[in-house]
Design goal:
By secondary structure, the protein is an alpha+beta fold. The chain has 14 helices and 19 strands. The protein has a five-stranded mixed beta sheet with strand order 6-3-5-4-9. Strands 2-1-10-11 form a four-stranded parallel beta sheet, with helices on both faces. A hairpin with a 2-residue loop joins strand 15 and strand 16. Helix 5 runs antiparallel to helix 6 and helix 6 packs antiparallel against helix 9. It is globular.
């Protein structure tokens, strides 16, 4: 299974769009998006300096455009087996999956960036990374100081957000065996400080008609596998005030049997994390078009030959205990029952999203499962 990863804020570098503008139609598309959103994305992505593109309102649309251009050059209209974006990286990921159009993704990135920048200006807030220490102790101390969990990328490293004074207090007396490193960001992203931004994004998203995902979307909040367009957009909005659990996303991708992952431009950050969580998987990070050859070599032949990709992973429809009713090797039709999830409010059927053969169960009979968790793989 090939997954496409899309990086988040902090991975931008000066000139990140320059090498991608030579592809057919790329410059014209970016010029059109520039007019659409009222930002000179060509100049910002080619000649602007590091300080200018560090601005949240600029960084987010630039990252979205870079990922979209790289995806177009890599896939040429095909669809990967799954997508997973980190924070703002969910926007181009949803466009690749067909939930959003590219135009919608760029417009939402501009709105999201501006809304988050405005929300960050209301109070002096920020983020710190806490490296090492006992996670339970770190989170307990954070709660005492009124700080919130903002991001978990890998085990042993958490990002906390909140008022600047509380962050300074934490840094002055860090949890035992830990180090506190301030992050160069405008505010406490993915915490309650972003409530005004979430409301603005929600209004914009409600006006959209999402497409049905062409492939599973592994969501930031908990690593759930999302196969409904409206749910993907609902999660996109909620993400602004909730933590990014990329560690959970990687755990899901591992359970789904990911054998290869390609990180869209500007690649590198998520690939480094995936090396630890997906041992044995082939990885490629797209930083310049020179990396496309490696990225394309990881595409399964079916992806290269046809953009028509069907779901292979069956997610849990609810939270409870799984009762398997079909066996590995069984042939099933679309809509046929594969099992039942028995929860507190009753049982929910696990239905096949397509016709195929049950090639693997990634859970066992009687296991506790959560909503969105991968249950089975259809071939």
């Amino acid at each position: 299974m090939l997954v496409l990863l899309s990086p988040g804020q902090g991975s931008q570098t000066p000139g990140l769009l320059t090498p991608w503008l030579d592809f057919p139609g790329a410059r014209a598309a970016v010029e059109r998006w520039s007019e659409q959103v009222g930002l000179d994305l060509v100049a910002l992505g080619t000649t602007a300096g590091a300080d200018e593109i560090r601005d949240t309102a600029v960084a987010q649309p630039l990252l979205t455009v870079a990922a979209l251009l790289a995806a177009d050059a890599l896939l040429d209209g095909a669809v990967p087996d799954a997508v997973c974006g980190h924070s703002v990286g969910e926007l181009p990921a949803l466009a690749v999956a067909g939930v959003l159009t590219a135009d919608e993704a760029v417009s939402l990135a501009v709105l999201r960036g501006r809304a988050m920048a405005d929300a960050a200006a209301v109070h002096p807030t920020g983020l710190v990374a806490v490296l090492g220490g006992d996670t339970a102790q770190v989170l307990a101390l954070a709660a005492e100081l009124g700080l919130e969990l903002a991001t978990v990328n890998v085990a042993g490293q958490v990002v906390l957000g909140g008022h600047t004074a509380a962050l300074e207090e934490l840094a002055a007396a860090p949890p035992e065996r830990s180090r506190v490193r301030p992050l160069d960001v405008a505010g406490a992203f993915h915490t309650a400080a972003m409530l005004p931004a979430r409301d603005r994004l929600d209004r914009a998203v409600q006006a959209l008609t999402p497409g049905r995902p062409l492939c599973p979307v592994v969501a930031n909040a908990d690593g759930a596998v999302v196969t409904d367009g409206r749910e993907a957009l609902t999660r996109l909005v909620a993400q602004l005030t909730g933590p990014v659990r990329f560690d959970s996303c990687l755990a899901t991708l591992s359970a789904m049997g990911t054998h290869a992952a390609v990180e869209l431009a500007p690649g590198g950050t998520l690939t480094a994390l995936a090396k630890r969580a997906l041992p044995g998987a082939q990885l490629a990070a797209l930083t310049t078009p020179a990396d496309l050859e490696l990225g394309r070599s990881l595409l399964p032949a079916g992806l290269r030959e046809s953009p028509e990709v069907r779901f292979r992973v069956v997610p849990s429809p609810g939270t409870g205990v799984i009762d398997l009713t079909r066996l590995v090797g069984d042939r099933v039709e679309q809509g046929e029952r594969l099992g039942l999830v028995a929860g507190r409010s009753g049982s929910e059927e696990v239905l096949a999203p397509l016709a195929g053969t049950v090639s693997e169960w990634v859970v066992s009979h009687g296991d506790p499962v959560r909503v969105g968790q991968p249950l089975a793989v259809l071939a």
